[in-house]
Structures are given as structure tokens and as C-alpha cells.
Amino acid sequence: MAESETYLQAKAFAKEHVAPWSKTVDEEGRFATEAFEKIAEAGYLKLIIPTEYGGQGKGVEEHVDVCRAFAEEVGSVGLCYMMHNVFLWEVMGGGRKELIERICKDVVENNAMCALAHSEFPTGIHFYNPTGKAVIDGDDVVVTAHKSMVTSAMAAKYYSVNVPSPLADGVDHMVVELGMEGSTFEMEKWRKAMGMKANVSCPLKLEEVRVPQANRVEETPGTGTDIELNSVVPPFVLGLAAIYTGVMKHLLDETIAHANERTYPSGHNVGQHDLAAFNVAEIYGRQQASLALTYEATRAFAAGEEDAMAKVFACRMISIDDVIDMAKLAMRVGAGAAYAGKGEFARLARDAYGGHIMAPGADMLHLWLGRALLGNDLIVPETDI
Fold first, then answer.
1. What does the alpha-carbon distance between residue 73 and residue 243 come to, in Å, rounded to a whole number?
2. Which has more pLDDT, 122 or 282?
3. Beta bridge partners of 209
4. Distance in angstroms (rounded) separating the CA atoms of residues 90 and 235
5. Could you tell me the residue ranges of all domains in the chain?
6. 183-185 and 140-150 as β-strands: parallel, antiparallel, unpaired?
7. CA 225, CA 43: separation in Å to the nearest integer?
8. What one-character-per-residue DSSP string does 131-155 give?
9. Minimal CA–CA distance to 166: which of 110, 103, 216?
10. pLDDT above 70 for 344
């Protein structure tokens, strides 16, 4: 596959400005502030913002390129970046011109970062079914909710919070701004996270937070689920497929490097043994298959093809399953050295498991793909939580 100029530039950028922080942010369990300062300086935060608002006007293909390039160095950086872009697509999909202009202007001029706050403790991966409370009070919406995993906590300025609409049947998204009275990030609950530690995906508690009605994403109240399915899910799922395909590439590189460096007293290295060659070949093949399907799904979605969403669901389904399997093979080659902490085997293996719990989770993806192929509704209220 011929690599795009966007990917090649982002890859070179990530090697210089993202990779150096991989160990530090994992060990300290903190946001990759230094990397994102450089990402902002390079203009990546405005990648998908339309040119009329001062952005680069790029689309989902470039989004996938950059997410993948960043994740090949640090998966968490790719994921936080992906969330930022998806937030912007959600706001633009809502159609409220003043809100779109205000947020895009802040991103372009001040490098404001954005994130999503959709998942909740009661409903888990069923992010489209919020249980919080929203009440109209004058020009404000008073929001009470407890979001479970909010990526880029405390680092982003804007957070999209989905709530039952107080104006219509359905769901609304309210843009909560960092520091609004009554909003609290429960940072201590992220300290024990297994992997993707630089996400800082901690809970967000909202206790009667007054959010201006002007911060509602939807032009038509109650249409939030449609916006999630049309503007959020496709770039979110494609972004995750790109991210975990990127993690697989890092696993491959780490495995090959170790196999060639680890030398026995005989003078032979691990890479000269057939078992290592077998495992490296399997990792390469599966990574390339995931890469090919991710880009085919991206192309199909950008082209508006009829079977695009089936491919979108399939590419993430394959990538998040394969990355875990390939982490196991990489650990076989790395063996005791990897288990003892050599290189980045352990971090990559821990990060690999994050793909299964990101909404919609692995099982829900299978269900949605099957429903899409059968021509059924993706969400079935009678059977879904």
C-alpha cells in the first residue's frame, strides 16, 4: 500500500515528538502534555476543521492517517487525538452555526482541546442510552450525570456530555467546559488503570452544572442519537481501528528488534530460530490484513458506499481482536526479557486490551455488524440495555 503524504509527515513528527514520552507517560499515568503541545503547534488539532473557520479542511482519510501514525509510537496519544477530532465532527453534525464557529475559533486560535463524555456507570458501553438528568432553567440546562471514562480529563477544555433531552424525546449533547461549577474529575480512580495510561480516562461527576442552552450541540433537540450514529460512530470506530493497527505495528517492530538483538552464547540470535520467524510472520500478516481492511473501510465510508458501515465495524472488530493475539505472540518471542520489563512489550500488551472495552465494545461490534448485514436497526431498545 502506498503511504499518503499525510501519514508520512505525521509518522516523522510522531517519532520526534511523541515517541520520546512513551515510557514516562505510562509509568507516571499522566496525560502526554509535552507531546500535545507539539501536536498543537504543528496544527494537527485543526486538521478536520473546515477552511472557512481557519482549519485544514481534511476528512476521515487524513484522520485515520494521523491517528495511526501517533498510535504507532504511543497508543494513548493516538486515542486522545482521535477523541478531539470526533468531538468536532459531533459539533459540526449538530448544525448550530454559532456553537460551531465559537469552538472552531477557539481550537484554531488557542489550540483548545476537546473530548467526549458519553459512557456512564449504569449503562457501560451502551453510550447512546444516558441516564443523567437535564432540566431547563432560564437560559441554562442544569445537568446532573456521572460519566465513567472521560478521555483527556483535565487536559481538554470542551467535553461533550450526552443527556436525556429536556425538550423532546431523545438525547441531547451539552458542551461542558472545563471548570464549570459542579463538575469534578475523579482523577484518583484512573491511577489503577491497566493500560493506555496516558488517556487519563477518569470519571466525571456533574452535580447540577449550569450549562448555557447555547452549548447544546443539536439544532433540533432530541436528535442526539442520530448524530452519534452518523457523525460520531464512523470516525470513532475507524480511528480506533487505525490506533490498534498502529499498536500492532509497534509490537511487530519491538519483536523484530528483540529477536535480532538477543544473542545466545553460540553466537546465534533469537531471530535465527524458526519459532521466532513463525511468530514474526504471523504478526506481520495480521497487522497488514488489519491495515488493509481499515483503509478499505475508510475509503468506502468517504465514498458513501452502501456497505461502508459493515466494513467500518468489521475493521475495528478485526483490529482489536488481532492486537491482543499478536501481543501474545510478541511476548513469546520476547520471553523472559519481555516479562521482566525489557523494551515496551509489557506496555503494548496492556494497551492492547483497551480496544475491547472502548464503546461500542467487542461484543457489541459483532452484534452491530450482524444487524447491519441483515438490514436491521443497529439499536434495538427492546433488547439492548
1. 10
2. 282
3. 143
4. 10
5. 5-113, 116-221, 225-374
6. unpaired
7. 30
8. --EEEEETTEEEEEEEEEEETTTTT
9. 216
10. yes
